[in-house]
Design a protein that fits this description.
The chain is of the alpha/beta class. The protein folds into two domains: 139 residues, D-Maltodextrin-Binding Protein, domain 2 (3-Layer(aba) Sandwich), CATH 3.40.190; 105 residues, Periplasmic binding protein-like II (D-Maltodextrin-Binding Protein, domain 2), CATH 3.40.190. Helices cover 43% and strands 22% of the residues. The chain has twelve helices and eleven strands. A six-stranded mixed β-sheet has the order 2-1-3-10-4-11, sandwiched between helices. Helix 3 packs parallel to helix 4. The longest helix has 17 residues.
């Protein structure tokens, strides 16, 4: 009986390691098509299982400030992770830039609008233009900045279809709930969007740079794993993979 008891105690002691919680990642919506294969490669390389939640960057900041159990935050700009730094919720004193985003105009091939271009944005034939919520999504804010810079915001404002995040803006354009969309290059380069439409890269001087940054969170249950994943994302092979997916290298 004593031997059985010792064995049970030993097995209970092993249980936490066997049932280790996954690394929890809060990720900007433009990373929806990008992160899954990287997470799989990370697990293969380290044995660490990671799960990502994709939302608009502002939504994730609110969740984190309210105690959501994330270990690391990957935003679509620097400003949102900086808020967590300022609030004392991040390990870093400065957000770590992991990539640079690109804003594009995307249209379906069967839309009858012709190839996406600045001329399309000036056309009266464009009735609905999808963008992400500029108050919550960095790509939405970049879209508004681009339209303002080009002198088109006033005429297009009544025709804007606002999505919760950039992934949803791409869905609106793809599903014909909008004639076109100002979306992330990561969304435009997915297999589905490439097959269904084409994109035009918006002038890079028409909106502030989309420097995408990350922070490890102070309340992280797995801070070492979070740091390992951030280092993994910053490694040369993964940076090259991000570039193929539509995100320019961090440096």
């Amino acid at each position: 009986m004593k031997l059985i008891r010792v064995a049970l105690i030993f097995l209970v002691g092993l249980a936490p390691a066997a049932a280790q919680a996954p690394l929890r990642i809060a990720a900007a919506a433009d990373l929806t098509p990008v992160l899954p294969p990287i997470l799989a490669e990370f697990q293969k390389a380290t044995g660490i299982h990671a799960e990502a939640t994709f939302q608009a960057s502002a939504t994730l900041v609110t969740q984190i400030q309210n105690g959501a159990p994330f270990d690391i935050f990957f935003a679509a700009n620097v400003a949102y992770p900086q808020r967590l730094v300022d609030a004392g919720l991040a390990e870093e004193s400065v957000p770590v830039v992991y990539a640079k985003g690109t804003l594009v105009l995307w249209t379906r091939k069967d839309s009858g609008m012709g190839a996406p271009s600045l001329a399309l944005l000036r056309s009266s034939a464009l009735k609905r233009l999808a963008i992400a919520n500029p108050d919550r999504a960095p790509y939405g804010k970049a879209a508004v900045s681009a339209l303002q810079s080009l002198g088109l915001y006033r005429s297009l404002k009544p025709r804007l279809v606002t999505a919760e995040n950039i992934a949803q803006a791409a869905e609106f354009a793809d599903s014909a709930n909008a004639d076109a969309g100002l979306i992330s290059l990561t969304s435009a380069k997915t297999a589905q969007m490439t097959a269904a439409g084409s994109y035009f890269v918006m002038p890079r001087d028409s909106y502030p740079p989309l420097e995408q940054a990350a922070v490890v969170l102070k309340h992280a249950a797995a801070p070492e794993a979070a740091q390992k994943f951030l280092d993994f994302v910053l490694s040369a092979p993964v940076q090259a993979q991000l570039a193929q997916s539509g995100l320019a290298p961090a440096k």
